[in-house]
Write a structure and sequence with these properties.
The complex is a heterodimer of chains A (316) and B (274).
Chain A lengths: L1 H5 L24 H5 L3 H18 L23 H16 L5 H12 L4 H14 L4 H14 L2 H18 L2 H15 L6 H18 L3 H17 L5 H12 L8 H15 L3 H10 L6 H12 L16
Chain B lengths: L7 E5 L3 H11 L4 E4 L3 H9 L6 E5 L12 H9 L4 E7 L4 H9 L5 E5 L5 H11 L2 H10 L6 H15 L4 H7 L4 H10 L5 H17 L6 H7 L5 H11 L4 H7 L1 H24 L1
Parallel strand pairs in B: 1-2, 1-3, 3-4, 4-5
Classes of the chains: A mainly alpha (316), B alpha/beta (274).
Chain lengths: 316, 274
């Protein structure tokens, strides 16, 4: 709750209201049962309903919200990864004790991410409702909304995260929210100019506040992808961006190899094999033998011809 | 203009204990009308304003099985503007009942034994109240609409549902009326008063498409003083009378007119900025 305590009360920050409804959902939360059609899914649906209701209820009324001894979430099918999170949420609902419900919701969202993206988004939203003043919770909703393909929802939650982060001067979450705005704007029908300006703002915030190099690397990689997709980009611009992305980490840092692979993948996606080969030769020592094999496999895969470059698939 | 009467709650359930619990919980907030048959419920919905809550035991009139009773689904299909709450039991069938209910556009579900305390019922009704209007607005707004604008429209929908005015919208968004006016202009939306009027027109148009309601019923339900008042506003906003709108598909006609106004605002904003 450190963020909430640091909010300066005299500043008239307006936090944008959150959009909660998923566009396709007729009955709130039932996507959970569709994505996990067994007793676990039903239990998660009931739990999600209860957590949202608890978060929306006035704190004084919360002890009277649920019956004592009501049937709890089924214990069958529960994966070990979320056992403790479910137990934490059940404790929060039953005894109204101080439990980090937001962290428990985030843990369920992380568990659900690969197989059930809408479940992940719904639990991330529930977590953000439990901690309405925490910028990172709102920013995480934007991440899951982007992963699930809801650009409008992602922009709404990222704007919320921006306002919260600015109020608490949490520049890390501020920059991360800007990256999510850029990702959402790279989706179909998005505003590429706004995406680019958001990424440039990330670089500026990074420079002023000395943030983690990961943020700078992500912003530069995304700018590089946007530059590859733009017709007016010069070769010197892309070269400058790729050099800057690689310089985010020291030559001994293994994350430099990750950046190099991401750059090579982007070049390969738009069919610029000659540039990719030149780049790989220039930084051959950065890759481990295993990574070098991965890159070779990347080039062996069929790619579209260079004359019809694909639009970038969006920042990651 | 509409007066701020307590919203109506139509209740159809054979569970006496639940009826007593619900009545105790929300009697001060809603005007509760118990109905016994599907026909009675249908007539009561036609006579009720669009912010009415309808609470139905999903097992009513159904021998067994997960799917809701046919008369219930017929009502859900006939009156998409009403906020329906299905009451379900926490049984083994719930796993099949929930996906079946999810296809009908319910406002929410009340699970007996889980969330049927007085506080939970009040909170569920507060949250689910007006969800059909929000769903209608979601489907009306263009996908490319700025998320700020979407958030303002969502808040305006909630304000219309409680018969609020532009001052209530500003309060809901925790801003001043002047700032809200500027925010609407920046988001390429009509000014707050006109936005609220538009949402009421869209709501009236969706009611006009529902079978069994006369124009006078719709005008009364939406809080217009008479059918002439509804006619004036539809001619002003959509360009035709309610009966002409109904022939053309009222909801679609209103939606097109609203989108056209949003596009015109976007064009004038671009011209002003550029």
């Amino acid at each position: 709750m450190a963020d909430a305590q640091r909010i300066r009360p005299r500043r008239p920050w307006v936090i944008p209201p959150a959009l909660l409804h998923l566009p396709f959902e007729l009955l709130r939360g039932t996507t959970i049962v569709h994505e996990t059609p067994n007793e676990l899914g039903l239990g998660l649906w009931l739990l999600h309903r209860e957590v949202e209701l608890w978060a929306a209820t006035d704190p004084d009324d919360r002890p009277k919200l649920f019956r004592v001894g009501r049937p709890s979430t089924p214990t069958r099918f529960i994966p070990p990864a979320i056992t403790s999170s479910l137990a934490a949420l059940r404790t929060m609902l039953a005894r109204d004790t101080v439990v980090d419900g937001e962290a428990a919701c985030q843990a369920i969202a992380r568990w659900a991410t690969p197989r059930a993206p809408a479940t992940a988004l719904l639990f991330a939203q529930a977590g953000a409702m439990l901690a309405p003043r925490i910028a990172s919770a709102a920013q995480q909703v934007a991440v899951y909304a982007n992963d699930a393909g809801y650009a409008s929802l992602a922009i709404n939650w990222a704007n919320r995260a921006l306002a919260l982060a600015r109020a608490t001067q949490n520049w890390h979450d501020y920059a991360a929210a800007l990256i999510e705005i850029a990702r959402a704007n790279c989706a179909a029908g998005g505003d590429v100019t706004l995406a680019r300006s958001s990424l440039v703002r990330v670089l500026r915030v990074h420079r002023r506040n000395g943030l983690h190099p990961d943020l700078r690397a992500r912003a530069l990689l995304n700018l590089f992808r946007l530059a590859l997709g733009a017709t007016e980009t010069t070769a010197s611009t892309t070269a400058r961006l790729q050099r800057a992305a690689l310089r985010c980490y020291a030559s001994s840092d293994r994350r430099r190899a990750d950046v190099l692979i991401a750059l090579l993948r982007s070049l390969s996606e738009v069919g610029r094999h000659a540039d990719a080969t030149e780049l790989m030769n220039g930084y051959a020592g950065v890759l481990t033998p295993k990574q070098a094999d991965e890159v070779r496999r990347l080039f062996a895969a069929p790619v579209p011809p260079a004359s019809t470059p694909r639009q970038p698939t969006g920042p990651s | 203009m509409r007066t701020k009467e307590p919203p109506r709650l139509l209740l159809m359930t054979g569970d006496g204990a639940f009826r007593t619990r619900l009545t105790r919980a929300v009697a001060r907030l809603y005007s509760i009308h118990s109905v016994a048959t599907w026909e009675e419920l249908r007539d009561a919905i036609i006579d009720s304003p669009p912010n009415t809550i309808v609470v139905v035991d999903s097992a009513a009139g159904r021998p067994s099985g997960p799917r809701p009773a046919r008369p219930f689904t017929a009502l859900l299909e006939a009156f998409p503007s009403a906020s329906f709450f299905a009451v379900v039991q926490r049984t083994g069938n719930l796993l099949k009942t929930v996906p079946a209910l999810a296809t009908y556009g319910l406002a929410d579900v009340i699970v007996i034994g889980h969330d049927d305390t007085a506080t939970a019922l009040r909170e569920r009704f507060r949250r689910g109240h007006g969800r059909p209007l929000m769903r209608m607005l979601d489907s009306t707004l263009p996908a490319t609409l700025d998320p700020h604008a979407r958030a303002i429209v969502a808040a305006a929908g909630e304000v219309v549902n409680t018969a609020g005015l532009s001052a209530d919208l500003a309060a809901k968004l925790r801003t001043s009326r002047r700032t809200l006016l500027r925010a609407c202009r920046r988001a390429q939306l009509p000014p707050p008063r006109r936005l609220l009027a538009w949402i009421r027109v869209l709501q009236a148009a969706s009611l006009l498409d529902e079978h069994g309601r006369t124009v006078a019923d719709v005008a009364r339900a939406c809080g217009y003083s008479s059918d002439a008042a509804l006619r004036r506003i539809t001619v002003n906003f959509v360009g035709c009378s309610p009966s002409v709108m109904r022939r053309r598909g009222a909801a679609e006609a209103a939606r097109r007119a609203f989108i056209a106004e949003l596009e015109a605002l976007a064009r004038s904003s671009t011209a002003r900025d550029g």
